[in-house]
Specification:
It contains 14 helices and 12 strands. The protein is an alpha+beta fold and about 500 residues long. The two termini are about 45 Å apart.
């Protein structure tokens, strides 16, 4: 039976909203990629093992370096918002993804609640030889018509190659993008460690996600080329007014250009707001993103247990020790350097705030508590990963000794150091009490059976195995229990959230 002529309004609306959402995802995805513009197939992200390096920036060989030196800064006309604004790039990505998914679901409902699905889903093996012949015709700069009986008798508006391409993009490429995107969440991988192995590793999923982005870009270029090849007036009549057999009209052209102009204007406004009104844009996007993220990911618990054979041979770091050699990270006093000089024998972890029993714990006090070791995957917000064996004491053991008051809901972890790219007096991050009580939340004083190295946060750092690495404050100085994290700092949940628009939950 022939497909009913014309494109329903639902199909046409989905087409244009899809253009908006995919373009937002692509530009914000590039902003995320710019934070670590290297791609790997191995989970360890070893320096030099990347299969693609978009920056080709040489790394220092004569001094300590960290992953911030691998960051790129891409212009705002390419990335959203660009200019080293990873936090808002992530927010735009996560704000757009559920809208794109909703658009896709609505499109499928329209498609399969009518005979429109026959435009896209092949119903005969004849499509493959027809598609081959069509491709040969294009390569010879000819314009093939739909070949009977496969497409013509069904009344399909596409030739065989077009139908096969649209089917592949919608039903193969798009699901792959969704699944590989999910595979980059530390909360998902912490709760379901097997999931990354579907793609080889988290880095494999990240690489496939990028290949999918490139595939969308290639499809877009070819699609636009075909629109002009087959007469832009006729094609816009289909996409705007839904008319299959029209020779085209100026009304469709001007309306199509108006829609495209609106999408372009939205991108311009989104970029300018993100660059010049960062705090405002952060609050607007977080109002939409944070409840969804909390509802879907916040309550997932890590059950990771990697074998020792999986421990990474090299473990990157992000941030510098708070010592004079790296003055940007150095705190307002020399306390850390004095402690470092005597190998932290005088170190005391201060635990205070809304607790019954404030504490000052030495490293010996912490080592006297039951020790826990765990081999887990570290997910940096920049995109690299490493597997390490962490040893320390469960934070729940400290909670039993300090006895939080009923009104205590959040913990504030403060460092001896500062954030290199802000004027904040000290680096801090907040988590809620539920995360603090998680069985794999520890205060780590060892890495790979060795005393915690200086660059990895000596003498102590927390591990939250369903969070991104920036939440795990290195060079830990104190833990404060508070009723509301919004009363601390700028009120966004941490230094990175305050000044770089990172997300408080950090589950993805």
């Amino acid at each position: 039976m022939a497909v009913e002529l014309g494109f329903p309004i639902g199909v046409r609306l989905a087409h244009w909203f899809n253009l908006l959402f995919i373009s937002l995802l692509a530009r914000s995805g590039l902003a995320i990629l710019s934070a670590h513009p290297k791609l790997y197939w191995n989970i360890h992200a070893r320096p030099g093992s990347q299969w693609l390096d978009l920056l080709r920036k040489p790394l220092p060989k004569d001094r300590m370096w960290c992953s911030t030196e691998e960051e790129g800064e891409w212009p705002s006309w390419i990335a959203l918002p660009g200019r080293e604004c990873l936090g808002l790039g992530r927010y735009w990505h996560f704000a757009t993804a559920p809208l794109w998914l909703t658009c896709g679901i609505c499109y499928l409902i329209v498609l399969f609640s009518s005979d429109q699905w026959q435009r896209l889903v092949p119903t005969s093996w004849e499509i493959f030889p027809c598609a081959w012949n069509t491709m040969l015709a294009y390569l010879q700069l000819e314009s093939p018509e739909p070949e009977p009986p496969y497409t013509y008798e069904l009344g399909l508006p596409f030739n065989a190659l077009q139908q096969l391409t649209y089917f592949s993009v919608i039903f193969l490429l798009t699901p792959m993008q969704i699944l590989t995107g999910i595979a980059q969440s530390p909360s998902i991988l912490g709760r379901f460690p097997w999931y990354e192995r579907v793609f080889g590793s988290r880095q494999g999923a990240r690489s496939l996600h990028f290949i999918g982005l490139v595939s969308y870009g290639m499809f877009f270029v070819i699609h636009i080329t075909m629109v002009f090849w087959h007469n832009v007036f006729k094609e816009l009549d289909k996409m705007v007014l839904g008319r299959d057999k029209s020779d085209g009209s100026w009304d469709a052209l001007w309306l199509g250009l108006a829609i495209i102009g609106s999408i372009f204007t939205f991108h311009v406004v989104a970029t300018l707001a993100s660059v010049y009104l960062r705090r405002f844009t952060h609050r607007v996007l977080s109002f939409w993103v944070d409840p969804l993220r909390t509802m879907l990911l916040h309550n997932l618990h890590s059950v990771q247990h990697y074998p020792e054979s999986k421990i990474s041979p090299y473990f990157r770091t992000n941030g510098y020790p708070p010592i004079s050699a790296y003055s940007q990270a150095k705190g307002d006093d020399d306390t850390y350097e004095r402690l470092l000089a005597n190998e932290f024998r005088d170190y005391r972890l201060e635990v205070f705030g809304l607790v019954q029993q404030p504490l000052k714990l030495s490293l010996e006090d912490l080592r006297a508590m039951p020790k826990q070791q765990q081999i887990t995957l570290h997910n940096c917000i920049q995109g690299w990963t490493s597997i390490g064996k962490w040893g320390g004491v469960r934070l729940a053991e400290v909670l039993e000794r300090c006895k939080p008051l009923p009104e205590a809901r959040y913990l504030v972890f403060r460092s001896f150091g500062k954030h290199e790219k802000s004027e904040a007096p000290v680096y801090y991050e907040c988590i809620d009490l539920k995360v603090a009580r998680h069985p794999q939340t520890i205060l780590a004083y060892e890495l790979n059976d060795q005393t915690l190295p200086l660059q990895h946060g000596a003498p102590l750092r927390p591990r939250f195995e369903t969070k991104l690495g920036f939440k795990m404050v290195k060079f830990l100085r104190s833990i404060e229990f508070v009723a509301d994290y919004r009363t601390v700092g700028e009120g966004m949940g941490g230094v990175r959230e305050d000044h770089q628009q990172y997300d408080m939950g950090a589950e993805i």
